[in-house]
Every structure is written in structure tokens, then in C-alpha cells.
Amino acid sequence: MTPANGIHKVTHCIFDNDGTLMDTEKQYEQAVGNILRPYGEKYTFELKMRCMGLPGNLSSRLLVRELKLPVEEAKFEQMFNAEVHRLMGNVSLLPGVQDLLLHLHHHRIPMAIATSGTRKVFCHKARPHCDLLPAFHHIVCGDDPALKRGKPAPDIFLLAASRFKPKPPPDCCLVFEDSPLGLQAGLAAGMQVVMTPDLRVPEEKTKGATLVLRSMEQFQPELFGLPPFDNCAKFTFG
């Protein structure tokens, strides 16, 4: 656990989804790898870091142009969406996520999700976890009509904050992210960022994060003025 200086109290939490809440990054790697294989190309981790956090159309554009693939960007995105749908039918939550969400919900901490994925793809991935969705005040997806720019621009986190009622100031919001682009977006929004990066992400790509954790299991809510975990029995919705 690597904390930065200047940690201060927050009142609201905004979560990225892929690689932060849901354990989907391996499936994304597999999906892209399956598409690139017939072209004789590999999805390197350096390429993955540049794609993580981007909306699907922008990551498709990056891959087609970077690798000079003989396929239209729209066609690549279509193949990508089909492969993701095939692989994402039963994704798991990452360690520590369920306990943290239930804890924050129990203490009435307002929460939202801000994901670059489309609403359709998010709903498909979230189906096994629909009992947890009531914990969130709202969910902002990458195809939201009000969203002008994707990560690393701050727009998605500012939009998520604006939909809480009442709207909190940015510095009262805590962002949870796993990608360097998401980290940049949260910081640009004027928010503190807890980062749970892939272990392969270079340390310099985590600079600026308020807190860097290996897993959500390490998160201590009281560091940010949130209620600490206690010994109450865990509960579920439904």
C-alpha cells in the first residue's frame, strides 16, 4: 500500500468497472488476442496499457492504426464487441470488492460507476452481479449521450459526480481506478484516486495516485474519513 501526501475526507465514491470492480482484463486480452492472431499480430502489454480505459471505438482505432491492420476500424470494433460478448458471460468480482461495496452501502455512502464500456456491454457483464447494482446511485457508461470525451479527459468522472443529488464538489469524490488513463482522468477531474493497477504496470504510470493498492482488500476507508470496517456480519441484497 503506497499512500500519497494530502489525503483528505471524501463523501462520495466513483468506481471504474473493468479491472477495478470486475475481473475482466484477462478476457479483454483474450478477445483482442483472438482477433489479432489471424493477422500475425500480438496484443502486447504496452499496447494494452494504451488501450485500457479508452472507449471501444478509440481503442479499435488505436490498434488498427498502430498495427496497420487491413481492416476498417468499425469492423474491428464490431469483431471486438462480438468476442467480448462471447467471453464475458460470467465474470467475477475482484477480491475485496463485494465487501467494500456492501460496507459503503450499509453506511449510506453515495456511490456511482463510471465505465468507458457501452451500456449494452456493461449490462451483459453485470448480469451475474445484479443483486449489487442497487448499491449504486447511478451508472455512467461510455456511450452516455451527455459524455463528450472519454478518459483520460475528466468528463466521465465529472458527469458521474454531477448526477449525485445534491452534487458534491470534485474534491469530495474518491475515484477507484486500475488504468493509467483512468488515473489521469480522475486527477484531471480534481478528485483523489485510489489505484489498483495490474502488477505489470510500471511504477511511473501510477504517479499522482492518492493511494496505490495491490488489491481492494487492502483499502482502509477510514483513511478518507469513511466509516471503518467493523465486525458486523456480512449481508447481501435480496
Count of β-strands: 7
Helix share, percent: 25-40%
Helix-strand topology string: EEHHHHHEHEHEHEE
Mean pLDDT: 92
Which outline best applies?
A: globular
Which strand order spans the largest sheet, edge to edge or round the barrel? 1-7-6-5-2-3-4
Spatial separation of the terminal alpha carbons: 34 Å
- Major β-sheet annotation: 7 strands, mixed
How many helices? The count is 8
Summarize the structure.
The chain is an alpha/beta fold and 238 residues long. The chain has helices at 25-36, 45-51, 56-66, 73-87, 97-106, 119-126, 155-162, 180-188; strands at 2-3, 12-15, 111-114, 138-140, 173-177, 192-195, 211-212.
Strand-helix topology:
Layout: E1 2-3, E2 12-15, H1 25-36, H2 45-51, H3 56-66, H4 73-87, H5 97-106, E3 111-114, H6 119-126, E4 138-140, H7 155-162, E5 173-177, H8 180-188, E6 192-195, E7 211-212
Parallel strand pairs: 2-3, 2-5, 3-4, 5-6, 6-7
Antiparallel strand pairs: 1-7
Structure description:
By secondary structure, this protein is α/β, with parallel strands linked by helices. 34% of the residues lie in helices and 10% in strands. It is built from 8 helices and 7 strands, in the order ββαααααβαβαβαββ. It has helices spanning 25-36, 45-51, 56-66, 73-87, 97-106, 119-126, 155-162, 180-188, and strands at 2-3, 12-15, 111-114, 138-140, 173-177, 192-195, 211-212. The protein has a 7-stranded mixed beta sheet with strand order 1-7-6-5-2-3-4, with helices on one face. Helix 1 (25-36) crosses helix 4 (73-87) and helix 3 crosses helix 4. The protein is globular, with a radius of gyration of 17 Å. The two termini are 34 Å apart.
